[in-house]
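quick one, 328 residues, struct below
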Amino acid sequence: MRVLVTGGAGFIGSHLVDRLLAEGYEVVVLDNFSSGRRENLRDALASPHLKLVEQDVADPDGVRRCMDGVERVFHLAALADIVPSVNRPLVYHRSNVDGTVCVLEAARAAGVRRFVYAASSSCYGIPDLHPTSEEAPPRPQYPYALTKLVGEQYVLHWGRLYGLPVVSLRLFNVYGPRSRTTGTYGAVFGIFLAQKLAGKPFTVVGDGTQSRDFTYVSDVVDAMVQAAESALSGEILNVGSGRPQTVNRLVELLGGGVVHVPKRPGEPDRTHAGISRIRRLLGWEPRISLEEGVVVMLRHIEDWREAPVWTPEKIEDATRDWFRYLGK
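---
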């Protein structure tokens, strides 16, 4: 079976590609390398069953040419991070909304049998209830979260109107090897690992008691594969560990000193995935604990040798617009 993975050279996408190749799929990867890296596909590129297409996901003709013979689509291509989305909302809209529509329409025209969308738990914003279920009202706080939510709405609409079998997976705080090591101020794991390598203290936001539903990448890949192999359609499913851990606990596991930076507006004190629906509908279960995941991350710590080392001063500068726009 031939499948298409958009954003397949990215962090999660490359792990998904490895899994699909191992299971005997013929895989087409579409990526424009705006954030993905060829190095992430180092082993996969040796496979005769991989086709790599360097292509912008928002180019309808280019995307259409990648759909020949494709039966399943995993749509992961997107721009991420808060601050760049605040500063460049139109760029994010083009990638995350226009790009999603291009992939959907190409999939519909090609008669694709399954479409799995990588949505974001950031759509919940600051929720009222924990754990947070799929019924919680969306409250996106910044353009990245909004564009991922709008993309999800297009996915569900194409499912209802055109009969395209779609599933949207709302991912919570994904981490693991190959997570991004360069670029803008972003995910906590990459920041902390680069700081540990440099012998610098961890920059903990606020008092560190805020908790996150850290979800290991192989568990996310399991959910994507199971969703693609299921008969579900029109469903939204949370994908998380269901076991939030504090940032202080992460610091304890990584080992190192701490310096505190100001708490940021628009960020929840807690993310906690309600995962009863995905358990019931797919039989999916998270397998990797934070303790196990941190062991793997430390084993791969050299991957962050060239990553930027964030100091409180650099963070203050990088997040200036974050406070300016979200602190109102």
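The two ends are 50 Å apart (CA to CA).
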